[in-house]
Amino acid sequence: MPWIQLTISAPEKHAPLIGDMLEGNGAMAVTYRDAQDNPIFEPPIGELVYWQETLVTGLFPAQTNMQPIIANLQKSSYFKNGLQYKTDQLEDKDWEREWMDNFHPIQFGKRLWVCPSWRDIPDPSAVNIMLDPGMAFGTGTHPTTALCLGWLDGQDLSAKTVVDFGCGSGILAIGALLLGAKRAVGVDIDKQALIASKENAERNGVAEQLEVYLPANQPLLKADVVVANILAGPLQELASVISDYVADDGELVMSGILERQIEDVQAAYAEHFDFSPAQIKEGWVMLHAKRKR
């Protein structure tokens, strides 16, 4: 169905309130984006951060009479100097089809592909992860995931145990199993991520080799390879927890790190690990380390 977008420019402190006002006036969805193209790379854990000047957009059905809504918004004291807004018509499209068209099979390294279900598999003889984009993070399109998948593709994982810390969709654990790992353990704070990981493992025929746990329920184990694709802050805060998973002579791969954060993350692990040179893709970093003997 067609839609109308109502977009209002707001200072950071007022953005969430204006979003609530749009919802209160019948917006079917509200989104926030930067008015000046200033990226926020890593907000504090659990904190929702807005830009200094934020564009707040409400989405309304096309038949909506916008004048009463705009008049209602103008009554707010936040717009005492006038409400600056614009409206746009969105054409009627098959949004699901348009969304699906954006996803294609992607190759990582020499052997590994990630393939959505509605596309033909480019190389049936390759190692193919069948994975559709969904709620849980991790489909291979982000540089951090791509770096980890590329690293896994270059390893001999035969008979090894792999821990995927912050498993999301389970893509790294599933990739490791398809590449020859004997066992994988996914850990995530989000129950939905654990469900998605198990469902994706079923689809790829490796469910019996994958275990998933919330952090509170995770077992004591030592893994040959630990992959943690989260963010620099949690990587530092959880350094002792993540390190404890790595077996003697085991390997640790970490991503979700910006170039300016390399030294801080390495410092958190330097006592027990030796680092290889960082791999960088589009400003994002993957660190590989081996436990010291």
TrEMBL record:
It catalyses: L-lysyl-[protein] + 3 S-adenosyl-L-methionine = N(6),N(6),N(6)-trimethyl-L-lysyl-[protein] + 3 S-adenosyl-L-homocysteine + 3 H(+). InterPro entries: Ribosomal_L11_MeTrfase_PrmA, Ribosomal_PrmA_MeTrfase, SAM-dependent_MTases_sf. Pfam families: PrmA. One of its GO terms (molecular function) is protein-lysine N-methyltransferase activity. It comes from the Bacteria. GO terms for cellular component: cytosol; ribosome. Keywords: Cytoplasm, Methyltransferase, Ribonucleoprotein, Ribosomal protein, S-adenosyl-L-methionine, Transferase. This is Ribosomal protein L11 methyltransferase.
